[in-house]
Amino acid sequence: MIRSYVKYRRKAVNAHGLHSPFLYEFYQKVVRRKNYVRQPEIESLRSSLLQRKAKIRVTDYGAGSRVQANDLRSIASITRTASMPRKKGMFLNRLLEYYECRTVLELGTSLGIGTAYFSKARTVNSVLTIEGCPNIAQIAKENFDGLNCSNVELRVGRFDKALKGVNQVFDFVYIDGNHLEGATLEYFKFALEHTHEDSFIVFDDINWSDGMKSAWKKIIAQPNVHVSMDFFQFGIVCKRPTQRKQDFTIKF
User: Fold this and answer.
1) Type and span of the H or E element at 173
2) Rounded (5°) CA angle 122-150-102
């Protein structure tokens, strides 16, 4: 992981290294923009969850946790290790608003911190989020109720089963929660079939393991992916067929 990060830092560019008009605008309006309204209610929820020492039994259908091998975990530890960081949440909230995304699909709800950042974007009408663990999903539901995230639909179960019958086209897809290479590629295939030319598809933890690195390389090599953005902890791909195929490593 350290070696991968050093390599990323050497390659990463800011606005001056982005010659694509789309990427330059993306950097200036979404990545670089700092004077932005924060989401204090979401961060207040995070602080509250970090104080909860009660333990729940976690069902994990993916690659598991690199931090905790035990399936009995405290709510505080799940918040600390699996919840979306504030910086990233605000960044994706800005992306959703600037590009006027209305429909969101999230694979991997966890306790709902990231989901809330999606839900609170002013342009978003609906968020379909799926969580594999029933105990975690129950807490997430309580969090959505407390934050008044009325535009969120939460489904519980294996991703492949929960996605059956979903025919909607999404503006934004966020893929997290299963860090196996084969599963990630399957979810990417689903995302391609359920997005349009201007949609954003985001993959979390693209440097988490050799399998995830391999999946990311295969994803950005696909002929129908014309823009990829590597932020080290996560990656974004877009179809955008009018653009020349390019891969970018961007400072974050």
Assistant:
1) strand 170-175
2) 40
Region for residue 100 given its phi and psi (left: phi exceeds 0; alpha: psi -120 to 50; beta: otherwise): left
Contact in structure between 73 and 55 (CB atoms under 8 Å): yes
Q: Is 77 helix (H, G, I), strand (E, B) or coil?
A: helix
3-state helix, strand, coil in the chain (%, to 5): 40, 20, 40
Q: Tell me the average pLDDT across 232-237.
A: 96
The verdict on pTM exceeding 0.90 is yes
Q: Would strands 72-74 and 55-57 be described as parallel, antiparallel, or unpaired?
A: antiparallel
Residue 242 identity: T
Name residue 202's beta-bridge partners.
Answer: 174, 236
pLDDT in tens, 89-146: 999 999 999 999 999 999 999 999 999 999 999 999 999 999 999 999 999 999 999 9
**Per DSSP, which regions of 50-131 are E strands?**
55-57, 72-74, 103-107, 126-131
In terms of Cα–Cα distance, which of 117, 116, 124 is closest to 100? 124
Q: Which residues pair with 129 in a beta bridge?
A: 106, 154
H/E stretch holding 242 = none
d(CA 88, CA 215): 22
Give the bridge partners for 127, in sequence order.
104, 152
The answer to whether the CB of 142 falls within 8 A of the CB of 175 is: no
